[in-house]
Amino acid sequence: MLQAREIVYRVGQRELLHGVSASFEAGRLHLIVGPNGAGKSTFVKVLSRLLRPQAGEVRYGDLDAGTQDERTLARQRAVLSQALELAFPLPVRDLVMMGRYPHFRGRPGRADEEICDEVMAYFDVQDMRDRSYVTLSGGEKQRVNFARVLAQVWRPLPGACRYLFLDEPLTFLDIRHQIDFMKKVRAFVEHHDVVAVGVVHDLNLAARFGDRLLMIDDGRIVAFGSKEDVLTPAHIRSTFHVDPVVVREPGTDAFHLIFH
Amino acid sequence: MSRLFTILRAVFQPEPPPEARQSGDTAGLLATLFVLMVLVTLASIRYGAIDFTAREMWAAIASLAGAHGPLTLNERIFLELRVPRALLCLAVGAALGVGGALMQALFRNPIVEPGLVGTSSGAALGASVYFVLGGLLHVASSVWGLPVAACLGGVVATYLVFALAQSNADGRSSIVLLLLTGLAVNALCLSGIGFLSYIARDPQARSIVFWNLGTMAGANWQSLGIVGATTVGCVVWALAYAKPLNALMIGEEEAIYLGVNVNRLKWAVLTINVIMVAVATAFTGVISFVGLIVPHILRILRGADNRYLIIGSALLGAILLSLADLVARMALRPAELPIGIVTSVVGVPVFLSLLRNRQYLF
Q1: Which residues from chain A sit within 8 angstroms of residue B259, using beta carbons?
Q2: Lower CB density within 10 Å: C or N end of chain A?
Q3: Pair A105, B259: CB distance under 8 Å
Q4: Which residues in chain A land under pLDDT 50?
Q5: Using an 8 Å Cβ cutoff, are B7 and B289 in contact?
Q6: Listed residue (B327, B346, B351, B322) closest to B338, CA to CA
Q7: pLDDT at residue B2 above 60?
């Protein structure tokens, strides 16, 4: 369980989050939607403790995230963000192994090697093992990064949840890889000890893959719940300033939005 | 010989190879570098203004242990000038090579090196201030006075460059701004040194060539002791940061997500770097481009893992600087070239090819 209590985050004079509270359960994929500049990414960065809020607290289970040291936190929390650019040639395998850095001192152990092999197979990048990251295409780079980040929290921890954050990771991916990636994240979140919170831009993708959606506008929560409760025409109109039509596929719970 | 060609090809190759090499035989490469370093050191103590035969070298070394009366002139040249000079080359080369590797890792840019971002010239300014003020004011001095003054100068100049060049919100500096600011601060430091050498009484401080282009001619056992101890200590200390520096390669945010305390890392690595480079500069002047070339060659040979780069840069830096010093001594024998001329002749083409190679840069 992940809880945010009355989070206030300011940059200079501007307040980006005005006392946001929400709690996120394990085993579910929570996706945050909202217009540009609404504070989605800021909120995820506060939850992942990259940013420290001026007021309020983030709790990982019973622990106050603000008091934990970086390394301890990094063993149970991983963040997928946009594709990285590297200035130096680095083999893909070495990059994936970085995901295990918080778990070992000195040289990687047997478990670390095994985990790297497993995540690379999971994201279908094992053939790129010895290639230099800088020579990969945008989509390949992103898949390697997913493998690296999942390596960080691949195995359950005794007595603690794992936390996975997605900070707009789908940029630069084509539609096939977007869907493929979301399916893999979904499958990973099926584990009952994984708390997952992410930001996606595409409302239809959010509707299809999110268990629970959180709509944010101007640093405040507009709605939090199932896609039917959150992606209503009224909410979308007031938040995004576009007129949607909701289309349902007969016989399924699939749900599409068309914008005019 | 074939390895030499590989290295030469690597240096002048405009593009990085498509595939990073497997890191499997990294240990083999490091062992080869170590052997090369020993060979170069032997050559470096043998050849110079006077060539020594193996027998003479043995005799000189044996006379140290045996203490059989006064040393001959040649033995004294060998023991008091040649050997400390060869060893100082190793220490300074290692310091500059590792300094370049650390800076490049820290700023995530292959074109940064101590000579380009003000560390070396700031250290030289600090050292010349110490010479001049020490001479004018008759300040009581210990052997550590000079290195401490050089460190202060190096810190101030490096800080100035990075503070002035910081432009992006995420704290990374635009590389063009960084290089231009470095140029300006270097010019400022060098004109300060010029002024001080003009008013200096100390003959060493008066030599503007010494500060500008560097020389190993002033080597003695004391300077070797100070530079050697500092360099070995700093390289070992730097190795502790190899893993977090690897994480930093993928960006500050990502490194934080991997559990790295990035602010602490930056401070530690900058401190190590400035101490190591400034102390070396205090005794040998500004020697440019070693810190640029060395990690560049190593990265092309075996990739960018920082543990390998730090150890490799120490070895290859020592080798290259010893070779440069050998060339500096042999080219116009019995006169000497400033060593910075030799390193620049090799370094500038590498620098230019790096600048032109967009794939390797941001």
Answers
A1: 70-75, 101-102
A2: C
A3: no
A4: none
A5: no
A6: B327
A7: no
Q: Which residues touch A157 (CB under 8 Å, ≥6 apart)?
A: A75, A76, A193
User: What are the extents of the domains in chain B?
Assistant: 27-360
- Find chain A residues with C-beta within 8 A of B260's C-beta: 70, 101
Other C-beta atoms lying within 10 Å of the C-beta of residue B334: 9
Residue appearing with tokens 């543990």: B307
Secondary structure (3-state) at B304: coil
Q: Judge: B250–A98 Cβ closer than 8 Å, yes or no.
A: yes
Distance (Å) from the C-alpha of residue A233 to the closest C-alpha of chain B? 36
Chain B within 8 Å of A127 (Cβ-Cβ)? Answer: no
Q: Between B19, B254, B359, which is nearest A130 by CB?
A: B19
B10 CB within 8 Å of a chain A CB:
no
Report the DSSP pairing between strands A63-64 and A55-60.
antiparallel
Residues 6+ apart with CB under 8 A from B190: B121, B124, B125, B211, B212
Residue in A88, A107, A116, A150 to test binding to B, most B beta-carbons within 10 Å: A88
Contact A71 B253 (CB under 8 A): no
Bridge partner residues of A79 (DSSP):
A165
Tokens in use for B242?
């190899």
- Residue B8: what pLDDT? 53
Query: Contact B249/A85, CB-based, under 8 Å?
Result: no
A215 CA: distance to closest CA in chain B (Å): 25
The per-residue pLDDT for range B36-85, each reduced to its tens digit, is 999 999 999 888 877 888 888 887 777 777 666 677 788 888 888 889 99
ipTM: 0.90
Selection from B154, B96, B105, B94 nearest residue B265 by Cα:
B105
Residue B186 predicted with pLDDT over 50 = yes
**Rounded to whole angstroms, what are the CA distances from B330 to B12, B41, B49, B326, B335?**
25, 15, 7, 6, 8
Residue in the block written with tokens 């497993």:
A118
Name the residue in chain A with its Cα closest to that of B257: A74
Residue B167: predicted pLDDT = 61
Provide the CATH number for the domain formed by A2-259 in this structure.
3.40.50.300
Query: Is B19 close to A99, i.e. CB distance below 8 A?
Result: no
CA distance A212 to A234: 18
Q: What superfamily does domain B27-360 belong to in CATH?
A: ABC transporter involved in vitamin B12 uptake, BtuC (1.10.3470.10)
Distance in angstroms (rounded) separating the CA atoms of residues A144 and B131: 55
Model pLDDT for residues A11-57, shown as the tens digit of each residue: 888 889 998 999 999 999 999 999 988 899 999 999 999 899 999 99
Interchain proximity B299–A88, CB inside 8 Å: yes
DSSP chain A: -EEEEEEEEEETTEEEEEEEEEEE-TT-EEEEE--TTSSHHHHHHHHTTSS--SEEEEEETTEEGGGS-HHHHHHHEEEE-SPP--SS--BHHHHHHGGGGGG-SSS--HHHHHHHHHHHHHTT-GGGTTSBGGGS-HHHHHHHHHHHHHHHT-S-BTTB-EEEEEESTTTT--HHHHHHHHHHHHHHHTSTTEEEEEE-S-HHHHHHH-SEEEEEETTEEEEEE-HHHHS-HHHHHHHH---EEEEE-TTS--EEEEE-
Question: Per the CB < 8 Å rule, is A102 touching B251?
Answer: no
pLDDT tens by residue, B206-256: 566 677 778 888 888 988 999 999 999 999 999 999 999 999 988 888 999
